[in-house]
Design brief:
The protein has 426 residues and is an alpha/beta fold. Helix content is 39%, strand content 14%. The chain contains 17 helices and 16 strands. The strands form three sheets. It has an eight-stranded mixed β-sheet with strand order 3-2-1-4-7-8-9-10, with helices on both faces. Helix 13 links the parallel strand 11 and strand 12. Helix 1 crosses helix 3, helix 8 crosses helix 10 and helix 8 packs across helix 11. The longest helix has 32 residues. The radius of gyration is 23 Å and the shape is globular. 44% of the residues are buried.
Length: 426
């Protein structure tokens, strides 16, 4: 068999990174998007997303990875991945119009033996309900995108989960060739199982986050230190060394809350119990508001006209996304408070509030403020010493939920330091 040619339709964060990973494995990769302006930008190396190592990966791929806005260019491809964003509404409902419209556009342009792979995350039942191509040439593959670690996850996948019409039949040869190049397990299952597998993984992640947040908050109240407890959990084989047990400001981004909403709707429609999911959502929203509650109790109740510096607007480090950002949610509750904001990639205009002023330098944002809140754990912030922060601030309050700073150094610098998982030290 000749080397398969792979197309990716939809140059979103998911589509662009996934295509780059396949090209890096030595496959000729065609990147299609109907947006002429976007394709022109990509050809010039002007990326629409922020992702560590992605510019370097695209450059190293060279001519193996080509960009086009002509749908006819996928005619000679053996595999066509569909990877547009699936947006959600305020209740976590997925809008699958983007992948549906793209599939309707590209299927007539595909070769007669080419296979379609839905890579966008869709709700169970989507892939089987498609009218074309025929089931034997139609797959669903669970995406591995993690903002800030997307290149690592795409080039070094833990496993591939592939949904198909009949898991008893051999995987398409071209698709198996591409996936096998990454030397990881390939799990095949029926469409609905694969579609639910991604949601299941995210629910397990949410459970870990909820455990960490619930017990870390208890630590803050009783004098325990969550950071001392985590190693004990990591050494328990029933939990494991790779468990996500770091407390944070609830569930950021769009995918996790969407999946919880999906499980809630499916359970309600089918008469199953998912009350634990509702509890996870409630727990997440309670923890998200930690920074707003804390800054109000330690500063704003006595000084409502205070100036507060905020470092970080993105929902997590190493990404430009502000979807469900705890930082933006916190700022929205600081009505009338002057906010001096900094983020390495997100402009202050993303907040869309008149009380927020953006600064190009984090210490300039902190200068003269009564308090500092580090609401996104960008690595840049860990390189700034507490002594420098103390010199810039007018007050001494620092809220650092993710423990970006060294707590001991913060204390020695005279800062009143608040973090998640242990009692305040000032």
């Amino acid at each position: 068999m000749t080397q398969p040619v792979v197309a990716f339709a939809g140059m979103t964060h998911l589509g662009l990174v996934s295509a780059a990973a396949v090209a890096s494995a030595g496959f000729e990769t065609v990147c299609f998007d109907k947006d002429d302006i976007l394709i022109a930008r990509l050809k010039k190396g002007d990326l629409p997303v922020v992702e560590p190592r992605l510019p370097e990966l695209l450059k190293s791929n060279g001519r193996r990875q080509t960009f086009t806005s002509s749908v006819s260019d996928i005619r000679g491809c053996d595999i066509v991945y569909v990877a547009p964003d699936v947006s959600t509404d305020d209740e976590g409902r997925s809008d699958t119009s983007a992948p549906t419209e793209l599939i309707n556009l590209i299927v007539p342009a595909m070769g007669p033996q080419a296979v379609l792979v839905v890579l966008s995350q869709v709700e169970p039942g989507f892939t089987r309900a498609l009218s074309a191509p025929p089931p034997e040439r139609r797959y669903y593959q669970v995406e591995t995108l993690v903002f800030g670690r997307a290149v690592e996850r795409a080039t070094q996948p833990e496993r591939y989960i592939v949904g198909c019409a009949d898991p008893g039949r051999p995987l398409d040869a071209a698709l198996k060739t591409v996936l096998s190049a990454f030397n990881c397990p390939i799990l095949t299952m029926r469409y609905e199982s694969a579609e639910l597998a991604k949601i299941s993984i995210n629910c397990c992640l949410v459970a870990s986050v909820s455990v960490a947040n619930t017990l870390a908050e208890l630590c803050e109240a009783i004098g325990a230190d969550w950071a001392e407890i985590v190693p004990a959990l990591k050494l328990d084989r029933r939990i494991g060394e790779f468990s996500y047990l770091k407390p944070g400001l609830g569930i950021g981004g769009g995918n996790l809350e969407r999946d919880l909403a999906t499980v809630g709707r499916l359970a309600a429609a089918n008469g199953t119990d998912a009350s634990v999911v509702a509890a996870w959502v409630q727990n997440s929203r309670h923890r998200r508001d930690w920074a707003a509650r804390t800054i109000r109790s330690v500063l704003l109740d006595r000084k409502p006209d205070a100036t507060v510096a905020v470092w970080g607007l993105a929902y997590k480090e190493n990404t430009h996304s502000v979807k469900n950002s705890p930082s933006l949610a916190t700022i929205s509750r600081l009505n009338g408070v002057r906010v001096q904001a900094h983020d390495p990639v997100v402009p202050a205009s993303a907040v869309a509030a008149p009380n927020v002023e953006g600064f190009a330098d984090p210490l300039a944002a902190a200068k003269g403020a009564d308090a500092l809140m580090i609401l996104t754990p960008w690595p840049d912030y860990s390189r700034i010493t507490p002594a420098e922060i103390a010199k810039a601030l007018s007050g001494k309050i620092v809220l650092d939920p993710y423990s970006v700073l060294d707590a001991g150094a913060a204390g020695r610098a005279g800062l009143a330091y608040y973090t998640l998982g242990r009692a305040a030290r000032d």
